[in-house]
Design brief:
- The structure is a single chain.
- The protein is of the alpha/beta class.
- It has helices spanning 20-30, 44-53, 78-83, 94-97, 104-116, 129-133, 137-148, 176-194, 214-218, 235-246; strands spanning 5-10, 36-41, 58-61, 88-91, 120-125, 158-162, 202-206, 225-228.
- It has a domain at 1-7 and 102-112 and 137-225: TIM Barrel, CATH 3.20.20.70.
- Helix content is 39%, strand content 16%.
- Helix 1 runs parallel beside helix 10 and helix 5 (104-116) crosses helix 7 (137-148).
- The longest helix is centred in the C-terminal third of the chain and has 19 residues, at 176-194.
- The chain binds 1,3-dihydroxyacetonephosphate (13P).
């Protein structure tokens, strides 16, 4: 089944109001690649500004709380993201799982909250270096997938991003064979869980994707796009990745 390529920028904790123009440049140029779905996930503080600058473009959060509202100082809920104009959110990024102690159950609750608020979800999984080196990466990631997926969901509204922790921000990337093996294993596990919907759900790769390696990584088996950190901050670095997605079948 043909799945549309999906290239998503995760700005992490980067970007002040002067970055809105960069997002406008990215979304403007992305129109030249209609075969690729492009989204940007800026810090919460910039969501409204990006939506205003590029109406109709896909702007997302980087996390959400599992509750719709309440006494959770510092947190942002999924209905708040939707209210600000976001249409998607990332959940379960390793920088949340590791830095904030989020469990698979926490990530599942956040994904369910996001879907209930009408958002699409990018659910992140990935192994630390020691687990990759011990040969346990696929088992580790499948535990995360099974534990973090909502009980019921529309596979057109949920993507899974495989982001090996040791590849994030390091310039290191797995081999194309390792990426294909991981993505194939995730899709097989999804087939067991949701049947034919597994052929619809998009699997993204993330970790040190740039304009030089994007064609190779996005061309690997069962890779439907990329979740990009550092190289998503400027149009000059991000657009070659979008173009790489457009050049693939
Ligand atoms: P980098 O592209 O900077 O390695 O970050 C990847 C990532 O964590 C995206 O969510």
């Amino acid at each position: 089944m043909a799945r549309r390529k999906y290239v998503v920028g995760n700005w992490k904790m980067n970007g002040l109001s002067d970055a809105v123009a960069e997002a406008g440049a990215i979304f403007g140029a992305a129109k030249d690649y209609p075969a690729v779905d492009v989204a940007l996930c800026p810090p919460f503080t910039l969501i409204g500004a990006l939506v205003a600058a590029a109406p109709g473009s896909a702007v997302g959060g980087q996390d959400c709380h599992a509750a719709p509202s309440g006494a959770y100082t510092g947190s942002v809920s999924a209905p708040m993201l939707a209210d600000a104009g976001a249409t998607l959110t990332i959940v379960g990024h390793s920088e949340r799982r590791e830095g904030f102690g989020e469990s698979d159950a926490d990530v599942k609750a956040k994904a369910e909250a996001a879907l209930a608020a009408g958002l699409s979800v990018i659910l992140c999984v990935g192994e630390p270096r020691a687990i990759r080196e011990s040969g346990g990466a696929i088992d580790h990631v499948l535990v995360q997938v099974r534990g973090s997926l909502p009980d019921a969901f529309d596979p057109t509204r949920l993507a899974i991003a495989y982001e090996p922790i040791w590849a994030i921000g390091t310039g290191l990337i797995p081999t194309v064979e390792d990426v294909a093996a991981m993505h194939g294993s995730i899709r097989a596990a999804l087939s067991e869980r949701i049947g034919a919907g597994a052929q619809v759900l998009r699997l993204l790769y993330g970790g040190s994707v740039n304009g030089d390696n994007a064609a190779e990584l996005l061309g690997a088996g069962d890779v439907d796009g990329a979740l990009v950190g550092g190289a998503s901050l400027t149009a000059a670095k991000f657009l070659p990745i979008v173009a790489a997605g457009a050049g693939l079948p």
